[in-house]
Amino acid sequence: MPQIRTSRPAQGTKAKSAPVETDVRLDEGVILELKGLKTYFHLDEGTLKAVDGVDLPIREGKTLGIVGESGCGKSVTAQAIMRIVPKPGVVDGRMLLRLRKHGHIGSVVDLGKMGENSAEIRKIRGGEIAMIFQEPMKAFSPVHTIGNQITEAILLHNTPDPEEAEAIALDSFKKVGMSNPEQRLKEYPHQLSGGMRQRAMIAMALSCNPSILIADEPTTALDVTVQAQVLELINELKSSIGTSVVFITHDLGVIAEMADDVAVMYLGKVVEQTDVDTLFHGAVHPYTRALLGAIPTVTADEGRQRLLSIPGTVPFPMNLPTGCGFYSRCKHRDSERCMGEEIPLTEVAPGHKVRCRIAEGSVQPKAGY
Ligand SMILES: Nc1ncnc2c1ncn2[C@@H]1O[C@H](COP(=O)(O)OP(=O)(O)O)[C@@H](O)[C@H]1O
Ligand SMILES: [Mg+2]
Q1: pLDDT at residue 307, as a whole number
Q2: What separation in Å is there between the alpha carbon of 217 and the centre of ligand 1?
Q3: Which ligand ends up closest to the CA of 134?
């Protein structure tokens, strides 16, 4: 994991207009680094720890896949980065971003220190970091044409010239393979098919030329063929523009196709972090191994996909005892070793980290591991 080095800026070089600029440096090749990121929802019934101390680097021009079952804190992590966590959520921790478009290019700002409606974060949202969702209707207003909405975003983040903005919008529609792009720009969101709306949302995200694209389950609602096209499109854009991608999914099959680096999340924590090859060929955490065993398989009888699920469910992240989050579902659990204390992330090989006593060597896995 890249180290953060502190360095003193030369006197008088700090711009007044960038109060959130920090003097911490990011390792070369890292564009965004999450450090101790937490997002808690303080509810009447207790504190719901949706994200609970996430440390992750996102590398320039690479895809970080975040994988885990529903409820593990993937979407809230994305919302925290964008500073769009709804109330009563409270975001804590550092999110260090290297600026590529605004302010002091190359300098590092802390998104965690920005106000949710501040001018700084509004420049970053859509400009430096764009996001696409599972449901594109969320990204568009139903009462304006798609073209108007995309052009408006481009005017905000890319160019003040309306004619140029329209040209960029049209170009982005062509890039994402929209059929009849001139006509589509004049249409309202409900007039497009699900797949076309997804393309339009990607076009809007990419028309502002962001340095990071966060994709939160962008293809889950699409049928298999359209899903494959959208994934291919994101990969093409990543290689042609060099955008870094944070790809969130519950599907390891999609991770295999998309990711360079992978973080497996469980109950708001990263439980395993490694490169994609090691994930598939050398996973250590029992949760990761269980997910790998739960990849959909084509059954011989009907040729249909069958999802083998992991026994049990993700516990509700409120008032949980201290210790391993996966304890209740783990075949290798050891009541002495696995509960009572926080389990640290252990580096088992360079760049491969695991939050499990098995990785520490203090618990022996049972047969069948
Ligand atoms: N706005 C909210 N208010 C309260 N709890 C929330 C809110 N959003 C998410 N959560 C809770 O935070 C946890 C993580 O949710 P989420 O990040 O959406 O999971 P994932 O995307 O991995 O399925 C879940 O327990 C969920 O119920
Ligand atoms: Mg989600």
Answers
A1: 54
A2: 14
A3: 2
Rounded distance from Cα 317 to ligand 2 centre (Å): 15
Residue range 46-69: mean pLDDT, rounded:
97
Is the CATH number of domain 5-128+210-360 3.40.50.300? yes
**What is the tens place of the pLDDT at every residue in 294-337?**
766 555 454 445 456 788 889 999 999 999 999 999 999 999 99
CA atoms of 289 and 293, how far apart (whole Å): 6
Residue whose structure tokens are 């700002």: 109
Domain range summary for the chain, segments of one domain joined by +: 5-128+210-360
Tokens of 352: 């491969």
| Confidence tier at 106 by pLDDT (50, 70, 90) | confident
Residue (of 44, 214, 210) closest to 133 by Cα position: 214
Q: Read off the pLDDT of residues 196-217 as tens digits, 9 standing for 90 and up.
A: 898 899 899 888 889 999 999 9
Ion ligand 2 residue ranges (Cβ < 5 Å): 75
Mutate-to-test residue for ligand 1 from 37, 40, 76, highest number of ligand atoms within 8 A of CB: 76
Q: Given phi > 0 = left and psi -120 to 50 = alpha, else beta, which region is 49? A: beta
